[in-house]
Amino acid sequence: MNQQRREYIRGLCMMDDLLMSVVLQNKKCAELVLRIILEDPGLEVQEVRTQETVSSLYGRAIRMDVKAIASDKRLCNIEVQRDDAGAVPKRARYNGSLLDANTALPGDAYGKLPEQYVILITANDVLKGGLPIYHIERVILETGERFGDGSHIIYVNGKNRDNTPLGRLMQDFWCKNPKDMHYSELAAESWRLKETEEGALQMKSIADQIFVKGREEGREEGRKEGNISTLYELYKDGILSLENILPKVNMSESDFVKKAEEIANSH
User: Fold this and answer.
1) Distance, CA of 82 to CA of 104 (rounded, Å)
2) pTM, 2 dp
């Protein structure tokens, strides 16, 4: 591992999705984070997957930072977001929908869907309520009672670094030096990844996977854009009608024309 790459790794903190996702490959670290955020000291993690691409049959695939399955089958998606634009409410909604779509098996009763938590740890107070954590639940407006569909969204405000378990966790998420971290599990794993050859190679492996997946996703996006451009040209030449085209791209007329013009203007 060359010195430049090692210094880059040492400069990362857990608010960087690369380091966070590798640290949380360690089940004990994932357990610690989920126990604090969910306020469940008995939670146990059965399985952790990081940087996993979750596909949609018709829509956009996403790459999840961390997907953890608890021993009681609760399904948790943890994302870190430095950019407010990446933490909009509909992002949480979409992540949750893909978790469900990739969990339910044909023939399964709906009651078999597990409890699901989409957790966004944000650099800023995205919801602007001045709170350290926000719990979003579906409720019946007329009664105020919870709907009880097993879907939960949690925003963790990374700006909150007070002297509470959650505040100390956020301090650790921003900490670059493992020696300054509060939680020994996170400190030990961060140190291993930053200071040992084995850890540095593990970091490189995950970084390479992210790069390859990103390149593949870029090629797929390019294919989609090429398809739209081709169809638009056929439409302008009078060869295909919008009636033929729109079902193929699953877009409205205005969205199709707008996207085609954006693609044309970008080249």
Assistant:
1) 31
2) 0.76
